[in-house]
Amino acid sequence: MFEQQETDTKKYWLLILTFFLFFINIFLFWTDWQNSHRGLTFAMLDVGQGDGLFIESPAGTQIMFDSGPPRKILGSLSKMMSPFDRNIDAIVVTNPDADHIGGILDIFKNYKVGAVFEPGTLNDSKIFQNLKTEMKNKNIPNILARRGMRLDLGGDVFIDILFPDRDVSAWATNEGSVVARLSYGNISIMLTGDATAKTEKIILGENSSTRLSSTILKVGHHGSRTSSSESFVKAVSPIYALISDGKDNKYGHPHPETLNTLAQFGAKIFRTDLLGTIIIKCDKMEICEINK
């Protein structure tokens, strides 16, 4: 009798294990199918007065452009990444000011970062010095971003560096900003950091309008009048313009002049101070959805 009960118990647990393994296989298949069918994710994170952009390719490569000021990035970033995912493939620092690099030390404490790209401009702030020290301590590759470099994120997503095209170590941080263009099939995003009209003029002189034309413009310097010149916006000719700025910020960003320029060329404007984090998902090569 006891032997029969023991046999029945074993059969019961074997059945439970079989069902468990079956559902695990179904879950893994579903996850693999989702990953193979996902598109590009681009998010302008709500980091207040600063820049923090998250990009994930269909292949699963994840990179950041900037990280906002200190203690602002982790909450927004956690909504974009699985709690079990603690790896970021790269961070591109467009300039070394605190509103662009302040959150990187927070990221370093919570994620493993594969590499950091930077323009080569300098800042004597404690945040910048601590960042350099942490990269050295963690043995994170530190790469100078230069015109002509192409980052292959997999899944037909590429990021082409348009600027700097030279040594900018003696330049003002905004003028030496990294400017890049992301492409995914027929979708393209112009990433401008805090680049000024001076920087835009150089880029215009080195690239055709066809090469600069983009679906989306990440508006330079939080919508400041020092960026987004008419000639540059005309060349980019964006359908959408995204502005990362803090609510009621002391700089008055975005400036009316910039909003007028964007409107003049028909760009639909999205702002983090009004909408919070802005998420763009391109599930197909031609179609994007903006969740705000």
Q: What structural category do the secondary elements indicate?
A: alpha/beta
| Oligomer kind | single chain
Task: Please give the radius of gyration in angstroms.
Answer: 22 Å
Low-confidence parts lasting 5 or more residues at pLDDT below 50?
A: 27-37
- Which range best describes the helical content: under 10%, 10-25%, 25-40%, 40-55%, 55-70% or over 70%? 25-40%
> What portion of the residues fall into strands of 2 or more residues?
15-25%
Q: How many domains comprise the coordinates? A: 2
**Helix count, DSSP H or I runs of 4 or more residues:** 10
CATH architecture of the largest domain: 4-Layer Sandwich
Total beta strands:
17
Top CATH class of the largest domain: Alpha Beta
Mean pLDDT, to the nearest integer, reads 91
CATH homologous superfamily designation of the largest domain: Ribonuclease Z/Hydroxyacylglutathione hydrolase-like
Main pleated-sheet profile = 8 strands, mixed
Dominant shape = globular
**Strand and helix order:** HEEEHEEHHEEHEEEEEHHEHEHEHEE
* Strand order in the largest sheet: 8-7-5-3-2-1-16-17
Instruction: Enter the CATH topology name of the largest domain.
Output: Metallo-beta-lactamase, Chain A
Our measurement of the CA-to-CA distance between the termini, rounded to an integer number of angstroms, reads 65 Å
Structural summary, described in words:
By secondary structure, this protein is of the alpha/beta class. The protein folds into 2 domains: 1-37; 39-291, Ribonuclease Z/Hydroxyacylglutathione hydrolase-like (Metallo-beta-lactamase, Chain A, 4-Layer Sandwich), CATH 3.60.15. The chain has helices at 2-37, 73-78, 98-101, 104-110, 126-137, 197-206, 209-212, 230-236, 256-264, 272-275, and strands spanning 40-44, 53-56, 62-65, 87-88, 90-92, 112-113, 116-118, 142-144, 150-154, 157-163, 179-184, 187-191, 216-218, 240-243, 268-271, 278-282, 289-291. An 8-stranded mixed β-sheet has the order 8-7-5-3-2-1-16-17, with no helix packed on it. A hairpin with a 5-residue loop joins β2 and β3 (62-65). The longest helix is centred in the first third of the chain and has 36 residues, at 2-37. The protein is globular and about 80 Å long. The termini are far apart.
